[in-house]
């Protein structure tokens, strides 16, 4: 179908007619048409001898991507000192003197879990309550925590906020979600799957489906397998990326986010100015060939997608792939040949769709239904999928298909070593709905992890029950002992979380580490919870609710905001006036440990202790002051006298010894001379070398 040939492909074919001999020239990915969703295949690879695409390390000796280290360090040196000061002032209200820390602040990460649009909205409202730019949050003392964070992770619905913030240039949450004269907002009142309402065959819905399919088929034409995750990724892009407005929603006037790449984040102004935490998105891998349609085991590989890499710090893999080239198939780190590289697979929509792709668990091929989606949304998804499958081949319909760059690595340990595709699925598929894994990676040395916990766990009620934390703790205690920090102490069972009420109010886990450096970070757990003041809850909606009225979203944000600014007071429906201060204390607390505890991995230096005198000075020399004064005034005279005394004693001793020796020799010589049986000559010669003997003889 030639009319579907994307402009990108045409460019590629033209560029291949004039092959570039040595220097690598990458095709320019446009952001003008929905077909810019197509990656470019068969592009020149970089010179592998100098620029490998794959980075491998080991669990015992982890390395981070150098550009990540650069970003986090530069941000912590240039942006964070002001952010901490803006939040904590001079520290005196907490009993600290902030300047004493000399910019040695705790490293803070924020985790935003999955759960569709509920989790996305909970996470966003939570960020707003921690955002210094929000007046009421700032006044309550909670606003400012977002600004001091070094890392931010998103999973599924949580990844949508992460992407949305970056690709809209880090606006306030208010503008991002509700829009202003420049931004369209998330437009959650426009149904995700069927923007024109339930009639799949209305003209508008058909145009919309046509646009989605035009994108996905452009990708499929390159030979890279697509799946249901691709149209899903395109739907996500319409709401969370920046090119879609109410007016152009049902047009082909813009690319609707196609061509915006996750690996382009480093080029965005927010990143260039080190304004935001370093973003990471989590996805799981279904073992290729398993065809699993249930939850994954703990040993399934967990991936992170950063602006730099598709990577896994699981000991079984311990490798990262240059994200720009993430569609490239590598075997033991090498492409098939010098022009077998792929760029442009890391579409922002596809990254967010991959992290949120749980179709393998809800798509029922036998009955042609999608569990959990509303009947209308499910019908819409299946309709689009069926039209897709009619036109293109696909290897696995229900997962995100990523050509594998990790083939041949760690055979016997890495689950997909023999596969040349990765089957990436929703990051929550192994039971870890909170994207903790990247934040616990030892090399990142995160001190404080804020959890914007919007999981829906308790059946029918959709509040969190800690099951994700329990799962992460189990994974870290077994498979990730070498690579990740431990999890702080938490209740053992979801029933306990509920019984203790720690899932229904802000809770800090890990306040009292036993080791130095601490064996685990401090986890600040901010669960989506029933309103503290007894109001009717409006934020515990179902994961698969894919449409919200503006009014509902507004109400949801306000309620979450009030709850997070209130903290809790035992046995009361009142707000805690000290909550903001308490949160500040928790965030800064590990700085005290950092300053005072011995950490073999981060040794201090005695040069940090300037102007210290080492010589003992007797504060109270014995004797009366007058005498002390005499001694110090006559110091040199006294030293001279002491030396004179020593010389005198030495001279006397020497003289005595000489005299004694001379007497002995005299006696011996006389004895020899008087002995007639001896030949005196040799003995005399022997003694002649002796000066004192000479002098004796001269006498
Ligand atoms: C750790 O890895 C780095 C980078 O690969 C390497 O330079 C260093 O020698 C390794 N250290 C140890 C102890 O293996
Ligand atoms: C702060 O957040 C609340 C809750 O979403 C919102 O109502 C308010 O408008 C925000 N204020 C600012 C200045 O953004
Ligand atoms: C959308 O964001 C991109 C950066 O990802 C930027 O280049 C572009 O100008 C933005 N478009 C609109 C319509 O704001
Ligand atoms: C909208 O964008 C224009 C141009 O960048 C800017 O001058 C204006 O302040 C923006 N409006 C708002 C509400 O941010
Ligand atoms: C955009 O163009 C494609 C291909 O011609 C078409 O299938 C689709 O319906 C169009 N979408 C809209 C909203 O007009
Ligand atoms: C998984 O599905 C593929 C393709 O349908 C099939 O060839 C393979 O045998 C299946 N594997 C298992 C373990 O069922
Ligand atoms: C990816 O590879 C290209 C080409 O070698 C290089 O310019 C770029 O810096 C690499 N990106 C990362 C994040 O390593
Ligand atoms: C290089 O690899 C690509 C992708 O596998 C293939 O299409 C192309 O024909 C190969 N070129 C050569 C010269 O082998
Ligand atoms: C806790 O959450 C898990 C997973 O979300 C769920 O399967 C389980 O039924 C929940 N248990 C309780 C007691 O809420
Ligand atoms: C301590 O600091 C001094 C001066 O900055 C440096 O020369 C020395 O190598 C450092 N020692 C250690 C053990 O790092």
TrEMBL record:
Domain PLA2c stretches: 50-611
Catalytic activity: a 1-acyl-sn-glycero-3-phosphocholine + H2O = sn-glycerol 3-phosphocholine + a fatty acid + H(+)
PROSITE patterns named among the record's database cross-references: PLA2C (PS51210)
Source domain of life: Eukaryota
Keyword Ribosomal protein attributed: no
Transmembrane segments annotated in the record for this chain: 636-659
Any one Pfam family match given in the protein's UniProt record, by short name: PLA2_B
Family classification: Belongs to the lysophospholipase family.
Protein name: Lysophospholipase
């Amino acid at each position: 179908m030639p009319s579907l040939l994307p402009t990108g492909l045409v460019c590629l074919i033209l560029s291949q007619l004039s092959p570039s001999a040595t220097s690598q020239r990458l095709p320019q990915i446009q952001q003008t048409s929905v077909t810019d969703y197509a990656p470019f295949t068969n592009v020149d690879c970089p010179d592998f001898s100098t620029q490998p695409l794959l980075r491998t390390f080991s669990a015992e000796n982890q390395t981070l991507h150098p550009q990540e280290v650069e970003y986090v360090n530069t941000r912590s040196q240039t942006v964070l000192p002001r952010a901490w000061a803006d939040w904590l002032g001079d520290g005196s209200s907490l009993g600290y003197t902030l300047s004493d820390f000399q910019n040695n602040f705790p490293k803070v990460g924020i985790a935003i879990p999955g759960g569709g649009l509920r989790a996305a909205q909970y996470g966003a409202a939570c960020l707003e309550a921690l955002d210094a730019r929000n007046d009421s949050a700032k006044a309550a003392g909670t606003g400012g925590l977002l600004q001091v964070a070094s890392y931010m992770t998103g999973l599924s619905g949580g990844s949508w906020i992460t992407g949305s913030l970056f690709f809209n240039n880090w606006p306030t949450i208010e503008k991002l979600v509700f829009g202003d004269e420049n931004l369209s907002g998330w437009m959650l009142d426009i149904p995700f799957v069927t923007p024109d309402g339930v009639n799949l065959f209305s003209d508008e819905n058909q145009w919309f489906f046509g646009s989605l399919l035009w994108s996905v088929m452009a990708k499929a034409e390159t030979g890279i397998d697509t799946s249901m995750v691709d149209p899903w990724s395109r739907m996500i892009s319409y709401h969370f990326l920046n090119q879609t407005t109410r007016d152009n929603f049902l047009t082909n006037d813009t690319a609707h986010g196609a061509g915006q790449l996750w690996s382009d984040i480093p080029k965005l102004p927010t990143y260039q100015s080190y304004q935001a935490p370093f973003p990471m998105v989590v996805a799981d891998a279904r073992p290729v060939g398993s065809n699993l349609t249930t939850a994954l085991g703990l040993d399934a590989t967990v991936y992170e997608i950063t602006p730099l890499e598709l990577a896994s710090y699981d000991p079984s893999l311990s490798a990262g792939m240059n994200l720009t080239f993430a569609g490239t198939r590598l075997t033991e780190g090498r492409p098939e040949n010098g022009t077998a590289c792929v760029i442009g697979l890391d579409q922002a929509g596809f990254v967010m769709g991959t992290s949120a792709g749980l179709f393998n668990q809800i798509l029922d091929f036998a009955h042609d239904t999608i569990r959990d989606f509303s009947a209308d949304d499910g019908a819409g998804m299946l309709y689009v999928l069926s039209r897709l499958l009619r036109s293109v081949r696909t290897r696995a319909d229900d997962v995100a298909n990523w050509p594998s760059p990790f083939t041949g690595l760690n055979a016997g340990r890495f689950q997909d070593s023999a596969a040349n595709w990765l089957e990436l699925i929703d990051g929550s598929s192994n039971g870890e709905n909170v994207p903790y894994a990247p934040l616990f990676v030892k090399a990142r040395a995160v001190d404080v992890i804020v959890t914007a916990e919007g999981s829906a766990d308790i059946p029918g009620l959709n509040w969190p029950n800690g099951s994700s934390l329990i799962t992460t703790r189990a994974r870290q205690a077994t498979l990730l002992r070498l690579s990740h920090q431990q999890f702080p102490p938490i209740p053992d069972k979801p029933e306990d979380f509920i019984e203790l009420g720690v899932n229904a109010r802000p809770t800090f886990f890990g306040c009292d580490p036993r080791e130095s450096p601490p064996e685990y970070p401090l986890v600040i757990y901010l669960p989506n919870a029933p309103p503290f003041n007894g109001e009717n809850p409006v934020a515990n909606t179902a994961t698969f609710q894919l449409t919200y009225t503006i009014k509902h979203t507004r109400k949801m944000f306000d309620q979450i905001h009030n709850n997070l600014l209130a903290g809790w007071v035992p046995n009361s429906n009142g707000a805690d006036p000290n909550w903001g201060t308490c949160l500040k204390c928790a965030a800064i607390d590990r700085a005290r440990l950092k300053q005072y505890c011995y950490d073999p991995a981060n040794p201090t230096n005695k040069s940090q202790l300037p102007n210290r005198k080492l010589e003992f000075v007797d504060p109270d020399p014995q004797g009366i002051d007058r005498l002390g004064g005499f001694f110090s005034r006559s110091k040199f005279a006294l030293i001279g006298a002491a030396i004179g005394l020593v010389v005198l004693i030495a001279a006397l001793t020497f003289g005595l010894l000489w005299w004694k020796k001379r007497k002995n020799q005299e006696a011996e010589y006389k004895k020899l001379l008087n002995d007639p049986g001896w030949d005196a000559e040799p003995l005399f010669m022997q003694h002649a070398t002796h000066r004192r003997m000479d002098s004796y003889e001269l006498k």
